[in-house]
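#dry-run=false #mode=assembly
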Amino acid sequence: MAARPRAPVPDKRRIILDAAVKVFARQGFTQCRVADIADEAGVAYGLVYHYFRSKDAVLDTLFLERWEVMVEVIGQVDQQDLPAREKLRYVAGFIDDSYRHDPDLMKVIIVEVTRAANSFGRTHMPDIQRAYGRLATIVEGGMRTGEFRTAVTPAFAAMAFYGVIEQVLTQWIFAEGPIGDEEFDRAKDLIVETVCGGLNG
Amino acid sequence: MAARPRAPVPDKRRIILDAAVKVFARQGFTQCRVADIADEAGVAYGLVYHYFRSKDAVLDTLFLERWEVMVEVIGQVDQQDLPAREKLRYVAGFIDDSYRHDPDLMKVIIVEVTRAANSFGRTHMPDIQRAYGRLATIVEGGMRTGEFRTAVTPAFAAMAFYGVIEQVLTQWIFAEGPIGDEEFDRAKDLIVETVCGGLNG
Amino acid sequence: MAARPRAPVPDKRRIILDAAVKVFARQGFTQCRVADIADEAGVAYGLVYHYFRSKDAVLDTLFLERWEVMVEVIGQVDQQDLPAREKLRYVAGFIDDSYRHDPDLMKVIIVEVTRAANSFGRTHMPDIQRAYGRLATIVEGGMRTGEFRTAVTPAFAAMAFYGVIEQVLTQWIFAEGPIGDEEFDRAKDLIVETVCGGLNG
Amino acid sequence: MAARPRAPVPDKRRIILDAAVKVFARQGFTQCRVADIADEAGVAYGLVYHYFRSKDAVLDTLFLERWEVMVEVIGQVDQQDLPAREKLRYVAGFIDDSYRHDPDLMKVIIVEVTRAANSFGRTHMPDIQRAYGRLATIVEGGMRTGEFRTAVTPAFAAMAFYGVIEQVLTQWIFAEGPIGDEEFDRAKDLIVETVCGGLNG
DNA sequence: AATGAATGAGTCTTCATTCAT
DNA sequence: AATGAATGAAGACTCATTCAT
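#status=ok
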């Protein structure tokens, strides 16, 4: 009798990571105890330590899993034959969609890592800088083709671009209710319009 | 012999606040113990609690002292008869100078409050929103006079503007050595040029 | 012009003692801080320490002031030419009236001293025993004249008599509302009736 | 070789409770630190908090464990077909034996709970009142059959009876040396003789 | 792999007491 | 006498991590 294909049972490690996202998002990394992760995952306390060296390692794993994808995406977009503005729009859209698809994970990454200057933000500085660097490369390309002005340096422009995106996500994170699809769609355009078009236009 | 005028002796409460800025900047709020503040201030442990209800209250006080000044400044700038772009430049310059003058304090405010979504950032949300609101009013004025395009809402523009500034300060905070005067001076222009001029120009 | 007689202004020391009774009764000795006493008295913090060596000394003073009167009364009653039962009734009445007249003070004495075996009860054991001794002397007299049976020792009888009184006061202390005059009046009789008459009668 | 039967190894929770009795009795609840309990039990500090929510919870547990047995016993005695006086004697004997068997535990219950009006006494008032109520029921039965006079109310008699017992235990608690068996035996009779027989007899 | 009991370092806060004025 | 700032010891509680099964 042929076994029917079924959704793969996620292994315990994955279950723990997913549970960690939930509790980190809900309570914050510091406020959450390892026991909360285990409870949310429905596994024994000690199993968290079987799969991860420490509580920190759980967050490190979550962050890197997603961040490396993002850095990779930024790199690949830059390979495409597109106007620089379209490349930035694609990046903004990717991050925007990441939040739309898994707001808890993005909340954790933003709040607990990229904005946490005294803890994980410092640890992962090289990773974060890598993303900045790739964004700067995109801007640089736009300047080389004459699409972008050279009033600011590529590095500054990249930083500003990321700063605007992070601020948008932060707004959503603080928002009470869920964000509507129209708002997600509009955000992509507003971000690019602000950074590329400027207020004076 | 005539007594030379001397700087007024700061009271103990002030000494404690100033010491707290130093240790919060150096070690981070969480990593610093109340004993560190007392030691840095050269006062007895208990005196911190004589003047402040809790460790949290020390940070609250530091934040509000400076933040209210900033909100006030933004409001007053908007009263001036100036192009909106000049108003934004003034605000950027004020924050920039705040960092130049007292980097430790600004570091604490940015890192421990405005970017700390799960702790003081949440507590002081109303204060932070008040600043956003005043920035939005400046942008709105610019749009009303036709100086600014209306491609994005005033609120979005204010948020983006603040996001860029915060990101610049964050860079400085992470930087190893001290920031040079030229960099401070240039930053004001770059921020405004980015948000107002845009990359496309 | 002749000065009119006026109520004597209580000195600060007295004011502090009276305030202490209030706050000890309200919050309990341990739960009340020295600052609470000073606040209630309307004097400066340090003045409490000008008049009293320590917080403990305040309670010691309050206790002894009243307790010595009581011991004295028990002694004097025993000098009278009265049946032993009447003597006991007088003592019960005196304590009963003490509570009626100043429930806060009696509450403090009972709760914080005579029933506090691990703190002031131990310190003032000799004082408390002195009262027991005088009660025993009364009982002993009753036995010598044949008024009382000798089924129990005078010491045991004294202890029982005091135990019943303390339990009655404890009930009042725990009671929500104020105690009515009839209850005070009846209590004196019930106490004596119980200890002298017995349940079998 | 046949394994000799051995006493079951008490679990750590029990060990902690027993250690707490010792140190509470020796130093008093307030004077004892949680570390003292852990040391006496020979376990790590944190284990106390693994089993109990707080230091208070340890005492609550100790009190209730024993008090509920006592309340139960009083209720069961009343079911027996005995003269009321015999019932009271049985209750006095049970409490007396409780002290004889485990003076530390009884000391803790009396000193730290039933006589501690401002702390645990208040918390456990309902439990204490439940015991009073059952004693009153016994007295009431004695009055209904005519065995007891109705000069005082059952509630008052119950309170007096308990007051005398508590005072006896308090004497023992304060006593320097150990109490002899004869004194324990005699106490049962003296208590009942005092409350039932009365001094006048 | 899985469990959860056991460990113990770390720190905020309280508050009685002292002291300079 | 009167004030209140200054001192610092003490202790409950948390929780990441380890470890024996």
